[in-house]
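Tokens for chain A. Residues wanted.
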């Protein structure tokens, strides 16, 4: 499996990055901190892979000549670009990305929750898609910070760079995580989708990507 995913990532990273205008660069930033157990990690990974087979999402990615990448994040020094930027030209590109997402290993275990560093790391990874008209960080998480820096300051940096932050708040009880993401994480014009548990994540990621890709470019 390890060799297979390396081959998939290599093939995706070799796709040309300059052939056509790109509407949206979408960086999917997934929480793999200590609060996410292995079953919950699989729900996130499988939910993302399945979302990339949704005909509405496939069509929107192709029409927008979109670019997609995946980051996994946890504690203050735990961020990794696990799937590099992929330009979506055809349905085959989306299918390859979905397969790579399903196979991607977990980058970290037994680590804290540092969304500020996750945001700043994500902001720093848009250079390969600087031609895209719209840049979006799609961050998901199930907890508030227990390490790292000022989340609101990281959000302001994203805003200064012209990057939108949207979020999936994964709740186990109440709306504490949703409220945190609304107040401190999303940028002006951004939005939060609430997943009631990790089991609700597949529905939430589908709804969120469709909404992101449907937003007008401006």
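Reply:
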């Amino acid at each position: 499996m390890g060799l297979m995913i390396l081959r998939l990532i290599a093939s995706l990273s070799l796709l040309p990055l300059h052939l056509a205008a790109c509407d949206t660069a979408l960086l999917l930033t997934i929480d793999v901190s200590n609060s996410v157990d292995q079953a919950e990690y699989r729900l996130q990974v499988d939910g993302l892979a399945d979302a990339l087979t949704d005909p509405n999402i496939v069509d929107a990615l192709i029409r927008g000549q979109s670019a997609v990448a995946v980051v996994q994040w946890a504690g203050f020094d735990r961020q990794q670009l696990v799937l590099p930027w992929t330009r979506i030209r055809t349905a085959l590109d989306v299918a390859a990305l979905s397969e790579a997402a399903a196979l991607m290993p977990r980058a970290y275990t037994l680590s804290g929750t540092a969304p500020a560093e996750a945001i700043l790391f994500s902001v720093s990874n848009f250079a390969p898609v600087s031609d895209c008209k719209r840049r979006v960080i799609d961050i998901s998480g199930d907890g508030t910070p227990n390490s790292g820096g000022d989340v609101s300051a990281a959000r302001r940096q994203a805003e200064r760079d012209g990057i939108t932050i949207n979020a999936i708040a994964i709740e186990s009880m109440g709306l504490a995580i949703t409220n945190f993401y609304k107040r401190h994480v999303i940028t002006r014009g951004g939005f939060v989708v609430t997943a009631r548990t990790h089991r609700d994540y597949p529905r939430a990621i589908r709804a969120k990507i469709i909404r992101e890709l449907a937003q007008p470019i401006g």
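The beta strands are 24-31, 67-73, 79-87, 134-141, 163-170, 192-195. Residues 12-18 have pLDDT under 50 and may be disordered.
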